[in-house]
Amino acid sequence: MSADLAIGIDIGGTKVAGGVIDVGGQVLVRARRDTPHRSKSPDVVENTIVEVVDELFAAVGRERVEAVGIGAAGFVAADRRTVVFAPHLSWRDEPLQENLQRRIRVPITVDNDANAAAWAEWKFGAAQGESHVMIVNLGTGIGGGIVTDGRLQRGRYGIAGEFGHMQVVPNGLRCECGNRGCWEQYASGNALVREARGIIAANSPVAANLLASVGGDPADLTGPLITAAAQAGDQTSIELLAELGNWLGVGIANLAAAFDPGTFVVGGGVSAAGRLLLDPARESFRRQLTGRGYRPEARIVAAQLGNEAGLIGAADLARLERSGEPS
Amino acid sequence: MSADLAIGIDIGGTKVAGGVIDVGGQVLVRARRDTPHRSKSPDVVENTIVEVVDELFAAVGRERVEAVGIGAAGFVAADRRTVVFAPHLSWRDEPLQENLQRRIRVPITVDNDANAAAWAEWKFGAAQGESHVMIVNLGTGIGGGIVTDGRLQRGRYGIAGEFGHMQVVPNGLRCECGNRGCWEQYASGNALVREARGIIAANSPVAANLLASVGGDPADLTGPLITAAAQAGDQTSIELLAELGNWLGVGIANLAAAFDPGTFVVGGGVSAAGRLLLDPARESFRRQLTGRGYRPEARIVAAQLGNEAGLIGAADLARLERSGEPS
Fold first, then answer.
1. Which CATH number is correct for A5-120+307-323, 1.10.10.10, 3.10.150.10, 3.30.420.40, 3.30.1130.10?
2. A129-303 belongs to which homologous superfamily?
């Protein structure tokens, strides 16, 4: 049987998720391992990746897999081998491809996770047929990716798409990247949880539902819990998502000023909030877009591939790299 | 004689400048008309353009001109015919190409002035050979342009590159575009003059040199006068340019986070300040760039084509459009 499949791996802060993907972007088999909660060390993550890949090899047969694509939440060099900087993983100049290639005997390519997700949403998801796409992935931070005329825009050194580290507030909140006022400090899963804990810490009665949802311990609060509370009608949670959506629209208007895409795709865990997030984002975008009313305006749409966009895109990008096709 | 030349026109707030350009980007003949200081009406500007073009036709012979390119300080639609919005010219949905084509019997193309300048600096100027270029043109406002792999990035609707209208200060200074906190309110020629007048209005003794340079009337203050004072050693003017450079670096770091270019070209009238502007900008950029120290950093260089970049680029883009070559 010929090699007609690819494996995609998505490295998160607390898990490694993998899938076997066919050329149509379908996920045929899935595997997943949690990584120890506080361990962001490359060794632990690499061991976990190898375990996940081996499980997927066993499921479909190694000979059917032509390439393995890794989506990493960090700045990946233009050679698509090295993670040069990863604020949320504490990695520096990590030779991820080389370390893994010794242990996985199928060609490996590394991409930024949001670039991979952007590629997947353009090729198989919410932005099919769009000539100018930008993705904004709201997870722990904000990941971003740009696809123009069917090509992923990686920049001169491979690090394009780090929208989350554009400054939106001078002298603003400190970011994991070391700077202040980065967009992701105002419009990400971390920002949502931080704001909710802030309301609880202020002993506000409006936080009663949220506090009850975690049995009184704010440390247990998570983005999905806040989203669930909002969807159940908790007004405070609805307002928190609207505030986040407001900042999302501001940043999207900035990106539209610079790049004028036809479609913004909003993905990542926080996007599960759906219209509770996207409606305020669209309103804010319409108030903020320069020249509004005198220009065509980009659509803001929800991602379609959910939390599998990263691994689907990583797999497809690795397959294209292997076969010499453009991406 | 075959048509081997193109005319480029640059529309500014108070003048129309034109030139006849050869295929090597050389300006062979120049013409220039002032427009009435407060008149930004399309009629007046269009009449002036026709006069300038006719003067250039007369100089080289109309039969040698294969195309006319107009660089306009506004949002130009993707059809390269219509100026949909121009904050500094007060134009709305202006059918510039159609109006001019009736009066100028050589094919006309309209481009955004900063896009035209970006093209010229990439093809003939400071960014030759660079795969990923962004230009930041500091004039009345901030114009911008992106050239990637030898193609001008116009965006989905033609309006990419409006870097000056990215918000850098929430609830900040009001902009001509109608928004608040736009980058160009902090890093443009207008910003420089406004800040200088602010120091004078505060009756500060540190403004004595500046005030003397305009005979005591702050209304006569201009960007070039402030730059000249700084170059003559006036400390206040040096500090004003450094403040502007600081904001320039902040915005450039934001653009680098999103697009990761290899070279930023700083052009426009204010860039005549040279190192008094660019050194503070480079310092600020290095403090602000996310992941700094762990990634290759873009160069920040001065434009080489001065205030003729726009007309050189507009002419070359019109010629390429006419001949069906990519741009």
1. 3.30.420.40
2. ATPase, nucleotide binding domain (3.30.420.40)
- Nearest Cα residue in chain A from B263: A156
Q: If DSSP codes are grouped into helix, strand and coil, which group holds residue A61?
A: coil
Q: Which positions in chain B touch A250 (Cβ < 8 Å)?
A: 167, 170
Alpha-carbon distance of B132 to B263, in angstroms, equals 7
3-state secondary structure A216-264: CCHHHCCHHHHHHHHHCCCHHHHHHHHHHHHHHHHHHHHHHHHHCCCEE
With CA atoms as reference, the chain B residue closest to A287 would be B179
The nearest alpha carbon in chain B to A132 belongs to: B156
Residues of B in contact with A257 (CB under 8 A): 162-163, 165-166
One digit per residue, the tens of pLDDT, for chain B of length 327 reads 578 999 999 998 778 999 999 999 999 999 999 987 666 678 889 999 999 999 999 999 999 999 999 999 999 999 999 999 987 777 889 999 999 999 999 999 999 999 999 999 999 999 999 999 999 999 989 999 999 999 999 999 999 999 999 999 999 999 999 999 999 999 999 999 999 999 999 999 999 999 999 999 999 999 999 999 999 999 999 999 999 999 999 999 999 999 999 999 999 999 999 999 999 999 999 999 999 999 999 999 999 999 999 999 999 999 999 999 999
- Rounded to two decimals, the ipTM of the complex is 0.96
Residue A130 with chain B: CB contacts under 8 Å: 156
Out of A87, A156, A295, name the one closest to residue B131 (CB). A156
Residue extent(s) of CATH 3.30.420.40 domains in chain B? 5-120+307-323, 129-303
